[in-house]
Every structure is written in structure tokens, then in C-alpha cells.
Design a protein that fits this description.
Chain lengths: 578, 442
């Protein structure tokens, strides 16, 4: 796959003499390989349920824990990548698969990620009995679910948006479907995919921290990592340790940003189809190293060689006779049959779920859970409104000052990536100390991490407002409220909606960890569906967890359909600037 | 008329591509679908360049894609050197209007693409690609990305990519229309030189274009497509000697002839005054001409030097209009009964004269009258709105009616055009937010 878009394209063996950058590159590569080997070995140590893994609060252990956390993240990211390529390709290539896969993906996106953990962990443990690997897999799976759906959607949308003329050119010059996939569809999708990966990883840190402390049937297992470190710190009421964890996390995010995403983002610029690149990105130092160090030229050359070998191998395979898609030949009856199968399957599943809830939980409790959901819904709405009232003016103020905005944007991106749950102990500490109301003061925790998306998008929206509009407004003497009503608010509306959708989705997810918060022996408890799920998870009551997740999922789906999607359409149709 | 004997001799008897009664139907709301290509018979002989001209939407690009094997015809078939075409055939290469270069590949990478797909070994691939790049005059740009190049350079890459596979037949889909005039002429001349000097092994070229001069300059034969449904309306051999001079009387005569063929409305050629009474159907694909341009053209025509009558090629030149634009405007003026075209000339009719002389309000009245008389869709919308108690109707209603004749996209475009005209004429009003047509004007 790396053959055309592998790192440095022209890599000749004769040019492989070492350069200055090799001095930096060599230790990095060897170090990375050794770390990878060590931590994958650690993941597979023997382990039996009931044992406890000792987590030490000594900061000297933090690098090790941080590394384990990073490994989980990396494995989850790789798995998400593989999954999303396969899933999106299937959905984009086959009309029948698309009918099932896309709605399923849409629902998966709204399932609260932390709910997955308690449900899947037993399966993974059974898969690797007597090993820690089962627990590791469960944690990784939770991170995976926070990343994969997003990335898959992005890929799918790119795949179906490949320009027709490029497709025709690929067919005209006889690229095989395999060849065409790697030469046309993947490169075309790459810029969006990388951007989405970065956003997904940002969101993922939150779940890494949340998923390292796993509860199975009342037993809790702490996987070595920053998340476990902080949960032990909470149990011991150790504010210093919380501080160390925050610093360690900061360093981790910086490393991911500098070593992975900055270089990737700069590198994928070349895959963009549009003519003009709006802002020239300065090549990040790590990319410069990759491109200059001969070591990487050598690696790229090897990759290229293996890609060529494999493509030669694929070419030798008997080729299917190439032919244009014949629409008429596709039997409509099969399509109808397939739709019927899908509908019947969905109906059966629905009835099963109803029967299950009725038998295990009862309707009275179901009603109660729906009410809890409504309470959380209220919280989400109030929080988004408050966040908008706060961040829209701030964002516009920053956005009107492009020089300032350029410095502020990376900081906000960083804040969005920072797992807000690390700050929860501090908030709880304050609530307990000043004896504040749990119901009210726990709520802001839900939006702590996701409010930044609103700010970020409002700034971007303001930046993209043409200066001409502002000049016209000034020229006509449009001021104060009229200035907001006629110029700024309509102008930034599409960007605001994008930010608010992300923020609200994140808040729903965060409700599971934000509505019940601990500090040593003290537990603060707010009423809501998040707290319900968290409590049932603690007790390992599977049917009630399932009920909670289902109801939460329905709320998210309805909220998205009834509110956000409409606002989005409004923004798309009427307020797009171009 | 002297002819270049070597070339006419080369246009021999071997048939490269042959299309036999090709039809293409696209699905519409109606079960029958919309016919875009109607029984087209066509043959490309060895050694000739054939240009296909037609106004936009006449199906000429679709036909080229059928020949390329990119689109499957609904009926009829295509053969290439006697073999049925059921997918892109080896030996046929295509150059695209939008260049269709892969932005992530360098010039060299783009040119090598077709060879790579054929499994040509790396060394040979590189050698052939470099040769093609030199041939097309791009040496020095091998490692550039398409983004770094100007439009003309990019299309050169498009040609190099096509020529490197040594195509037997070259299909050109409006290859010069995205370029400015000067660049287009240079590139066009370079391609013609390659062909005339036999520096490429290509045996036949089909060019789809809407630029008449370009077609007359290049082609040995011009095919003119009529629209609704797309069909071959006329065929015109061009036997001018090469190199052809664009200013020679013989060249101008052919350009005039092609203009006449393109702008004369079907069936009305025999009766010069027939254009006014000729009726179109409800589902007629209205040309999406802008009111401003229509008004501008009518005003220009009414004034000296034209005084109500003009030669179309000259008009295009002096008013800075492309052939495509002019053909569209002329069609609309004829449709509305404002003008009459024939023999490569346009003549303003009395309603058109009155329109040009009138003030703003009177113009709107004339336009409205003409719209109700000549465009059934406009009359129909007005009629429905008059009849309805609230004098309003959702656009969806009319879209659904149009979709009996047209596909979704075209129906929307036609409705948009008629709404534009109707708004100008103040025949009816339209509210974008609610999508409602009504008689009220805010």
C-alpha cells in the first residue's frame, strides 16, 4: 500500500548514506521497537480473576504506566483503522451491504461507549482465560469503539465522493479494483481520515482513562496505566498524585501530537484535491526528520519493494474479466428479498429486546429509567446553552483577531484532547469542601471536556467570515445587537452547529462518569441515566446495564434526529457562505 | 476545393470503432425513462479525426462514454476493431475535460499509471513515460505535482498519460474547454502536429467539443448532435487542406454552416416564420439562459452595427461570448419568439424589437406575455396558481410533474430556470425557504 504514497517517493539504494537526521532517528526507532516488544509482553502476563495488580502512586512508576496507556491507544487506533477501511469499503462498494451497514453504524455512533466495556469484558476474559490479555482487550475495545465509527463514516463519505472523472480515468487506464482502491480511493480519503483520526484520538484519551479500571461482577481490576493510577489516587485522596497524573497525560498528548498527527497532517496536504491550500502548513520537525533521515529512505525503499512484490503477485492472479456495471441485470427481486430479510431480522430483534426487558427488569423500572434519561437530557440542553452563551462571544472576539486565533487554536485543540475526567477529583474536592449541591455542581463535569469544540468551531467560523462582510457592516453603520443578528450569528451558525453536535454527543457519553464521582470514601451522586448505568455497572447487573444503555442510546438518537440534524440542514441550505 | 490527398487516402477503409443504433435511457419518475441517445449509428475510420458538436445536454459526452466502454448502452452496441466493447478496451485512451489527474501523483506518476496497471516492468515504464513527457513538451516537470501546474500544463499531462499507452484510438472529451483561448490554441496546434507528423501511433481521434472553430480546425468530419433525444442531426465533411487558416473564406464558410446547423431549430428550417408558432412540451428542457444576458444580447442586436440582424460567428466574437453561450442564448430567444436564426444568422423579430426599445416595466410585460404564450410550463404554473384558492402551490407538485419527463436533477434545473424567468416577468413569486410558488409579491 505504501508504494505511491509511501514516505519519500524516490528512494534509491545509492542515496542511502546516513545524514544528520539519522543521529536522531536511529535511537528513536530502536527505542520504539524495544518499548513495543516490552509492553506487548506485559499485556500477556498470567492473571486470574480476584487478583489485584498493585498500582503504586510513586511518580517514578508513571512513565511505565503512561507507556502502557499509550500502547492501548496505539493498538486501538490500528484496530480502528483496519476496521474502518474494511467496513467503509464494503458499504461503499455494495449497495446491499450499504443498506444494512450504514444505519447500523449510525446507531453504533450513538451508543454510549463506556456501556460497551461492562458488556464485552466477560467475553474477552473467556477468550484468554488465565491471562491479563482478556482485560486488556476489553479496555482496548472500549477505546476502539470511541474511534472506529467516526473514522468509518469519514472514510465511507470520502469513498462515495470520489470525483467521477477520476473514477473514469482509473477505469479507462485499466486499474484493477485492488489497484484502484489503493491508488485512487484511499489517497482521496486520506486527508479527511487523518483529520478524523486526530479528533478520534482526542476523544479517545477520555476513554483510555475511564476504561482502565474495569468492574466485572463486582470485582474491580486495575490495568496498569494512567487511568488506574488516578483511580487509586482518588481512593487514597492523594491530590499530589492527581497532579502528577495530569502532568504525565499532558506529556503523552504532546508526544502523540508532535510525533504522529502534526507530521501526518502536513504530509496529507498533498492528497487534497482542491486547488488552493488555504493555509500553508510549515513542515513539522518530525516530518522533516522522516524525509531527510536516510534510515527512513531505506525503510521506505523496503516498503516500496514489498508493495511492488505484492502488487506483482496480485497481478499474476487470474483477473476477473473487467466489465461495466450492468444495472439492468441486477434482479430487483433479490433486492426486495434482501430488504425483507433485513426488516424481519430487525423486527425479531426488537421483540426479543422487549421480551428480555419485560422478563428481567419490568416496565415500572423501564419507565423510571426513561424519566432519568429526561433529567440527563435537561442537563445536556442547559449545559449546551450555557456553554454557547459563554463561548460564542469569546470565540467571536478571538476569531476577529486572526493573529491571536492562530496562537489560540492549537491550545484549544489540546484542551479538547485532554481527558476531562482527570480533573474530576479536583472538582469533587471543591464540592465537598464548600458543601455545594451535587445535582447542580456535578453537571458541569459533563461538558468540561467537550465545550472546547464549541469554542474551536466558533473561532474557525468567525475566521472564515469574509472581511468584506465586516467592512460592509461597518460602512452601513451596523452595530451592536444588529451586528450580531444580521452578520455574525448567521455567519457562524454552520460552524456553531458542528461544534455543538460534537459537544452534546460528548456530554451524553460523559454523563456515565460525571454523574457519579468519588473522592476517597465520599461518593457524590446526581440523579440521571448516567448515574443509573454507572451504579448498575458497579453491581454487575447485566440486564439493567443493557436497559440503561438502550434508553440512553434512544435519547441520543432522537435528540440527534429531531434537533441537530434539522439545524444542520438549515445551516447547510441557507447559511453556507459559498 | 483542394484537398490534402495523403490524408484522405489515409482515411481508409478499416473501421476502428463502430456504433450500431445505440440508445441510452436514464431512469426518471416515469417508467419509460428519458431517452438521451436515440438510435445512433456511427463509424470511425482509420486515419480520421471526427468532431462531435452539439449544444450542452445533447448527449454527446454520454455517447463518447458509450464508445469508451464507460457507459453501457440501453440498446444497440459498439464494436472496436470487430470486437464488442463491454468495458474500457485496451487500445482506447481518453483525455478528460477536467484533466482527471491524480493530485497525489507527480507528473511522472500520473503518466506511468496506465503502464503500471498493465504490468509493464518498472524500467520500461519509466523510459516510456519520460519519452511521452518529452513528446508533449513537459520535460523538466517530471517531479511536479499537478497542483503546481497551470491548466494548460495539466492538460498536457492528461495527453501524455493517454499517449504513453500507445493508443490506437484517442477519445477527447472537450479537452480544451477548461483552458483559456491562447493556451487552448497552442495545445490544440501541438496535438495536431503530433498527429499530422505521425509521431504517435494513434489511428483515429474522436473529439467532443462545443467550440466550432476548434472542430473545423481539427476534424476531417464533423457530426452535429441534435438534442431531446440526442441524435445525429447532420454530418459535414471538412476537406480543407492543412494547415488550415482560420481567416480563409473557405474556413469561415464552414464555420457559418456549422452555426446554421447548430442554431436552426428542428423542423423549422423549411418555414422561416415557423419558429414562433412551433410548440414545445411541458417537459421541454428549457435552456438555462440568464435574463441579464438575454436582455444584453437583444439590446446589442437592436443597435448598430447589427440593426436587428447579425452573423452568429461575428456576434460571438464582438460580444465576447463562447459558442456554447451564444447557442444557448439564441435558442432561448427563438423559443420566446424574440428572434429567428437561420443560415448562421440571427434576425430579431418584432416582439424582440419592442422589448429592446421598451422601458423596464414594459419589458417585464412583454416578457410575461411571451412566456405564457411560448413556454407551456410557465403557462401551466400560472394557470395552477390562478385556479387554487390560496393562489399558492408547493414546488414539489411541479417537480413531480416534470419528473415524468426528466430525471430528478434536470427537473430541478428546469424548474429553477422557469422560476427565474417567472420572477423576472412577475408572472409568479417563489419563496426559497418554504419552496412555495404563489401569486403574491412581497
Amino acid at each position: 500500500m505504501a508504494q505511491r504514497w509511501g514516505l519519500p517517493i524516490v528512494a534509491w539504494p545509492s542515496r542511502l548514506r546516513p545524514s544528520f537526521w539519522d543521529m536522531v532517528a536511529l535511537p528513536l526507532v530502536i527505542g520504539a521497537i524495544m518499548l513495543f516488544a516490552w509492553s506487548s509482553q506485559q499485556m500477556n502476563v498470567p492473571f486470574h480473576p480476584g487478583e489485584t495488580l498493585k498500582i503504586s502512586l510513586d511518580p517514578s512508576h508513571l512513565p511505565e504506566y503512561a507507556l502502557r496507556t499509550v500502547m492501548r491507544m496505539a493498538v486501538a487506533l490500528a484496530a480502528s483503522l483496519v476496521f474502518s477501511i474494511g467496513y467503509a469499503a464494503a458499504a461503499a462498494k455494495s449497495k446491499r451491504a450499504e443498506k444494512l451497514l450504514i444505519p447500523v453504524l449510525d446507531i453504533l455512533q450513538s451508543v454510549p461507549i463506556l456501556g460497551f466495556l461492562s458488556i464485552t469484558v466477560t467475553g474477552f476474559i473467556a477468550l484468554f482465560p488465565g491471562r491479563l490479555l482478556g482485560y486488556e482487550c476489553a479496555a482496548i475495545f472500549a477505546i476502539f469503539t470511541s474511534q472506529a465509527w467516526n473514522m468509518t463514516f469519514s472514510l465511507y463519505q470520502s469513498f462515495i465522493a470520489v470525483p467521477r472523472d477520476l473514477r473514469e480515468a482509473a477505469r479507462m487506464y485499466h486499474l484493477s479494483p485492488w489497484h484502484g482502491f489503493w491508488q485512487l480511493e484511499m489517497p482521496f480519503a486520506l486527508p479527511n481520515l487523518v483529520w478524523n483520526m486526530m479528533m478520534s484520538v482526542s476523544g479517545g484519551w477520555f476513554f483510555v482513562v475511564a476504561s482502565e479500571a474495569i468492574t466485572v461482577n463486582g470485582d474491580s481490576v486495575l490495568l496498569p496505566g494512567i487511568g488506574s493510577y488516578i483511580s487509586v489516587a482518588i481512593d487514597n485522596r492523594d491530590l499530589h498524585a492527581v497532579g502528577y497524573a495530569i502532568i504525565a497525560m499532558l506529556v503523552l498528548i504532546l508526544i502523540y501530537d508532535q510525533l504522529l498527527f502534526r507530521p501526518l497532517l502536513a504530509w496529507v496536504q498533498r492528497f487534497k484535491v482542491e486547488e488552493i491550500s488555504s493555509d500553508e502548513i510549515e513542515p513539522p520537525w518530525f516530518l522533516v526528520m522522516l524525509q531527510r533521515a536516510r534510515l527512513f529512505h531505506g525503510l521506505a525503499w523496503l516498503l516500496d519493494l514489498s508493495a511492488r512484490m505484492s502488487s506483482r503477485f496480485i497481478q499474476k492472479m487470474p483477473r476477473l474479466p473487467e466489465r461495466a456495471p450492468r444495472r439492468a441485470v441486477r434482479p430487483a427481486i433479490l433486492d426486495r428479498l434482501w430488504t425483507t430479510v433485513l426488516v424481519i431480522g430487525a423486527a425479531i430483534a426488537f421483540i426479543k429486546v422487549l421480551a428480555f426487558i419485560h422478563a428481567e427488569v419490568g416496565w415500572a423500572e423501564t419507565g423510571h429509567v426513561v424519566v432519568l434519561g429526561a433529567i440527563t437530557l435537561l442537563r445536556v440542553i442547559v449545559l449546551i446553552v450555557l456553554a454557547a452563551l459563554l463561548w460564542v462571544p469569546v470565540g467571536v472576539w478571538i476569531g476577529l483577531r486572526p493573529r491571536l486565533a492562530r496562537h489560540v487554536q492549537p491550545v484549544i485543540q489540546f484542551l479538547a484532547a485532554f481527558p476531562a475526567n482527570l480533573f474530576f477529583p479536583i472538582a469533587v474536592f471543591a464540592i465537598v469542601k464548600y458543601q455545594l449541591n451535587d445535582e447542580i455542581w456535578l453537571s458541569p463535569l459533563m461538558i468540561l471536556g467537550t465545550q472546547w469544540y464549541i469554542l474551536f468551531n466558533v473561532i474557525a467560523g468567525t475566521l472564515s467570515l469574509p472581511t468584506d462582510y465586516q467592512l460592509v457592516a461597518g460602512n452601513l453603520g451596523v452595530k451592536r445587537w444588529l451586528w450580531w443578528k444580521r452578520l455574525v450569528l448567521p455567519g457562524i451558525f454552520p460552524a456553531f452547529v458542528t461544534g455543538a453536535v460534537t459537544a452534546s454527543g460528548g456530554s451524553w457519553n460523559a454523563s456515565i462518569v460525571a454523574e457519579v464521582v468519588k473522592w476517597g470514601p465520599t461518593t457524590l451522586h446526581a440523579t440521571g441515566i448516567g448515574a443509573y448505568i454507572a451504579d448498575q455497572t458497579e453491581q454487575g447487573d447485566f440486564p439493567r446495564i443493557a436497559l440503561g444503555i438502550t434508553v440512553l442510546c434512544l435519547y441520543v438518537l432522537l435528540f440527534n434526529r429531531l434537533l441537530w440534524r434539522r439545524l444542520y440542514q438549515l445551516a447547510e441550505e441557507r447559511l453556507r457562505l459559498d | 476545393m483542394p484537398t490534402d490527398t495523403s490524408l484522405t487516402a489515409a482515411a481508409g477503409t478499416t473501421t476502428l470503432i463502430e456504433a450500431k443504433s445505440v440508445c441510452k435511457t436514464y431512469a426518471t419518475g416515469d417508467t419509460a425513462g428519458r431517452l438521451v441517445l436515440d438510435h445512433i449509428d456511427f463509424a470511425l475510420k482509420e486515419g480520421e479525426i471526427v468532431a462531435i458538436l452539439g449544444k450542452s445536454g445533447s448527449g454527446k459526452s454520454t455517447f463518447l462514454r458509450v464508445l469508451a466502454g464507460l457507459t453501457v448502452p440501453s440498446a444497440g452496441g459498439v464494436t472496436y476493431r470487430g470486437h464488442a466493447v463491454d468495458g474500457p478496451a485496451e487500445g482506447i485512451a481518453m483525455v478528460f475535460q477536467t484533466f482527471a489527474l491524480f493530485p497525489w501523483l507527480t507528473v511522472l506518476g500520473n503518466v506511468e499509471l496506465g503502464l503500471e496497471a498493465q504490468g509493464v516492468p518498472r524500467g520500461e515504464r519509466r523510459e516510456r513515460a519520460v519519452k511521452a513527457i518529452d513528446l508533449i513538451g513537459l520535460d523538466g516537470f517530471e517531479s511536479a505535482y499537478p497542483k503546481e501546474l497551470s491548466g494548460g500544463m495539466r492538460q498536457r499531462v492528461g495527453f501524455a498519460r493517454a499517449l504513453v499507452v500507445n493508443p490506437d484510438v484517442l477519445l477527447l472529451d472537450e479537452p480544451f474547454s477548461a483552458l483559456d483561448v491562447l493556451t487552448a490554441e497552442t495545445l490544440c496546434g501541438d496535438i495536431l502536429d503530433l498527429w499530422l507528423e505521425h509521431r504517435v501511433p494513434t489511428k483515429g481521434i474522436i473529439l467532443v467539443s462545443h467550440n466550432i472553430e476548434e472542430a473545423v480546425l481539427l476534424a476531417d468530419r464533423i457530426i452535429i448532435f441534435g438534442s431531446d433525444p440526442g441524435c445525429i442531426r447532420a454530418e459535414l465533411p471538412v476537406s480543407l487542406p492543412r494547415p488550415r487558416s482560420q481567416t480563409s473564406p473557405a474556413f469561415r464558410r464552414i464555420v457559418d454552416e456549422v452555426y446554421a446547423l447548430l442554431t436552426t431549430r428542428t423542423g423549422s428550417a423549411a418555414s422561416p416564420r415557423g419558429g414562433r408558432t412551433e410548440t414545445i412540451g411541458l417537459g421541454y428542457r428549457l435552456p438555462d439562459a440568464s435574463i441579464q444576458q438575454l436582455v444584453g444580447l437583444l439590446e446589442a442586436l437592436a443597435q448598430p452595427p447589427y440593426e436587428g440582424r447579425a452573423d452568429l460567428p461575428k456576434l460571438a466574437e464582438s460580444e465576447h461570448l463562447s459558442t456554447e453561450q451564444l447557442v444557448l442564448l439564441v435558442e432561448t430567444l427563438q423559443l420566446l419568439g424574440f428572434a429567428q436564426a437561420g443560415g448562421g444568422d440571427i434576425e430579431v423579430l418584432p416582439p424582440g424589437r419592442e422589448f429592446a426599445a421598451a422601458d423596464l416595466l414594459r419589458r417585464k410585460q412583454i416578457f410575461a406575455d411571451s412566456l405564457r404564450r411560448t413556454v407551456p410550463l410557465a403557462a401551466h404554473i400560472r394557470h395552477v396558481l390562478d385556479e387554487r384558492p390560496g393562489h399558492s402551490a408547493p414546488e414539489g407538485r411541479f417537480l413531480a410533474e416534470l419528473e415524468d419527463y426528466l430525471n430528478e436533477e434536470e427537473a430541478a434545473k428546469v424548474l429553477e430556470t422557469v422560476i427565474n424567468w417567472g420572477r423576472y416577468a412577475e408572472l409568479f413569486a417563489y419563496d426559497y425557504d418554504s419552496g412555495v410558488l404563489s401569486l403574491e409579491n412581497p
